[in-house]
Amino acid sequence: MKVRVLGCSGGIGGHHLRTTSMLVDHDILIDAGTGVADLSLTELAMIDHVFITHSHLDHIAALPLMIDSVADRRDRPVVVYSTAATLELLQNHIFNWAIWPDFSEISIRKEAVMQYKSLSVGQKIHLGERAIVAVPAEHTVPAVGYQLDSGAASLVFTGDTTVNDALWPVLNAMTNLRYLIVETAFSNREKRLAVMSKHLCPSMLGEELSRLERPAEIYISHLKPGQIELIMGEIEECAGHFNPKMLQNNQIFDF
User: Measured between alpha carbons, how far is 228 from 224 in angstroms, rounded to an integer?
Assistant: First the structure.
């Protein structure tokens, strides 16, 4: 599997700040934040599967525009996967004809332009030799993270989450865990806001990582623009012995 980071910021504000999305090989998206807009029309038309962690705008902003842009270039639906609760939110609040057309009802060729497929935590979706598994997340709306398993190794993306008792036993059971991408949205001085919004700050991150029993390369995503240096400095103080690195836009993971 080859994973390219299209966006990993907690906001926008410059050419290097794109919100959350990752391209897996050429045909899978994990989330559909503003980073998707940097793909060419040809690249967009090759995407068959979109796995959404949750319904917040920074993770779905490009999805309606992408579906519209490629509708006449495809001969089969784009399949959007998430929990039933998240898919219901997308249907009710985005693809509802008021905000955007409901492409699950629009057919240009034989099938609808878009299909919904619900999944649950622990469910494994096989796409060729690749497996994608929903893992637990704790956020203000229904949410999951995803394990991307090539067979040889796994990358886990936590999505947006806070203190999460259910996640660590799942990670500790993964014999081929290689990469862990975990969010840290706020600085320690904003811990109250992190708790309220169900994100992490560096002190909380350090406590969470202490529950990881397997070696893994750890990368930090979702840092708020304007606080990147502050948050990473605090992570060095609170969790430096785990050697976490800041996730970079256009970073590649090949495993």
Answer: 6
Based on the number of CB atoms within 10 Å of its own CB, is 126 exposed (0-12), middle (13-18) or buried (19 or more)? exposed
Domain residue ranges in the chain: 2-254
Q: How many residues does the chain have?
A: 255
Shortest CA distance to 31 belongs to which of 90, 85, 101, 80?
A: 80
- Place 110 in a pLDDT band, splitting at 50, 70 and 90: confident
At 106, is the pLDDT very low, low, confident or very high (cuts 50, 70, 90)?
very high
Q: Classify domain 2-254 at the CATH class level.
A: alpha beta
Helix, strand, coil % over all residues of the chain, rounded to 5: 30, 25, 45
149 sits in which H/E element: strand 144-149
Cα dihedral 10/233/159/62 (nearest 10): 20
pTM: 0.97
